[in-house]
Amino acid sequence: MGKHALLSASSSHRWLNCPPSARLGEQYEDKGSSYAAEGTEAHTLCEYKLKTALGIRTKDPTTSLTYYSEEMEEYANGYAAYIMELVETAKQNCSDPVVLIEQRLDFSKYVEGGFGTGDCVIIADGTLHIVDYKHGQGVLIESDDNPQMKLYALGALELFDGIYDIDTVSMTIYQPRRDNISTHTVFKESLYQWAAETLKPIADLAYDGKGEFRCGDWCQFCKAKHDCRKRAEQNLELAKYEFKLPPLLEDDEIEPILGKIDDLVSWASDIKDYALQSALSGKHWSGWKLVEGRSNRRYTNDEAVANAVSAAGYDPYEHKVMGITAMEKALGKVKFSELLGSLVEKPQGKPTLVPEGDKRPAIHTAKHDFNDYEEENSNG
């Protein structure tokens, strides 16, 4: 099943927000990445672990996995154990729950040619459960109002609604590298309402290459992000502030800039990367040239270096305590917690300015604390 749908579930966050990006992206080659390849292999291992846990005979893929590691093994085992807990819970209300692994889910009733693959679908009377494994650690993915999960749910309902008495749909993102298990549960009817009122009209526009271009966090994985005119226009709007130093800007000028800085930095980085890759492929940019960047010295053979230094009577090795992540891997989480739990602390994170919608609690500044102190004393 190597073919991808034009309006796939995995890209739905983008095309639902920027409908014409779907057709625009067809002009670009899908180059893939090592991150995507690693994610695919992690899914393969998860599938094997889950089938084994369910008593389904299947071939162990471990020796054929390029990116296999103890970490991947641990995460796949955790994923399988989590699914088995859900199955046991489902059995309390339904004697014969169905567990589907890597199931093709067709939602073309609402999205032209739309289909995707559900990592795990559990069908039982009362609740339909969709679980999606995410191996990435760069972006925290939430299940709340997640369009990819809702499309999978619609595909699963298309297969089983009517056969099973389903009232609610529970959607879970399992993202172990971010310690993130996020579940969102909705009534079946609300999904159908979203599909009819929001999903289908936008999907029709996207399939026809129509609608308005819009910029946002969904641009990150868009194939056209390097030379999208709309993205350039939005980021170049900041030029109207003439790059004044912060003290020369009014508050009502700084606030809209704050909302665009991350996108501007990302866009500028994408342009530089695109220009570099094009130059490496032979393109000449007027006024620019390829040169060799700075590099650091390195040993050609660590073992030979250690032997030579030892023979001269010196110690070639550094001696220091392993880092927390490496130590936890070496000892295992249980033993690590048992031996070192009281010796590990998590310092307060560096203050970061984020939009109000961010889920992290706000921290109090010294001024806030002083104001609270004044208020308490004035009331006392």
Can you tag this structure with a few keywords?
five-stranded mixed sheet, single chain, 380 residues, alpha+beta, 5 strands, Lambda Exonuclease, Chain A, 3 domains, 12 helices, globular
Q: Average pLDDT value?
A: 86
Spans of at least 5 consecutive residues whose pLDDT stays below 50 are none
Number of domains: 3
N-to-C order of helices and strands: HHHHEEEHEEHHHHHHH
Radius of gyration (Å): 26 Å
The assigned structural class equals alpha+beta
Number of strands: 5
Quaternary form: single chain
* Biggest sheet: strand arrangement: 1-2-3-4-5
* Fraction in beta strands: 5-15%
**What's the total helix number?**
12
Helix content range: 40-55%
- Taken from the alpha-carbon principal axes, the silhouette is globular
CATH-level-2 architecture of the largest domain: Alpha-Beta Complex
CATH class of the largest domain: Alpha Beta
Give the biggest beta sheet: 5 strands, mixed
Alpha carbon gap, first and last residue: 71 Å
CATH topology of the largest domain: the name is Lambda Exonuclease, Chain A
Structural overview:
With 380 residues, this protein is an alpha+beta fold. The chain folds into 3 domains: 12-207, Lambda Exonuclease, Chain A (Alpha-Beta Complex); 225-280, no CATH class; 302-341, no CATH class. The chain has 12 helices and 5 strands. Strands 1-2-3-4-5 form a 5-stranded mixed β-sheet. The longest helix is centred in the C-terminal third of the chain and has 30 residues, at 251-280. It is globular and about 75 Å long. The N and C termini lie far apart (71 Å). The mean pLDDT is 86.
